Fold this sequence. Notes:
By secondary structure, the protein is mainly alpha-helical. The protein is built from 4 helices and 2 strands; from the N terminus they run αββααα. 40% of the residues lie in helices and 7% in strands. It has a two-stranded antiparallel ribbon with strand order 1-2. Helix 1 (3-20) runs antiparallel to helix 2 (76-87). The radius of gyration is 19 Å and the shape is elongated.
Amino acid sequence: MQPARSHRLAAIALAALLATGLGVTAAPAASAAPGKTVTIDNTLPAWLPRAQPSVARMSLPQTLKVRVYLAPKGGVAALQAKVDALSNPASAQYRHWLSADQYAKTYAPTQPTVDAVSAYLT
């Protein structure tokens, strides 16, 4: 594997790990109608239409813990552009890696976004 390509893959993997570490834990709404599902716009995973259904019934009021991954602030394209710049030897940003704090300040969802999603899910 070429050195530039391996650094790029490492940067992408690091960005993915940092991005997925930012989750929200919430319980489902007790007032949701049984059997009714709600899809939030632009959140349907590509694999879902091919998934095999699995039936599981829960009696209310039972708590279900879930983890929700929010898109990076500025969007996935902005994060990908940063990873590309960090991985491109011709870029002035080449190998100027972000610390965890720099990543959080730049790409972590804002607290109002996290609060809105949490409120929607509880």
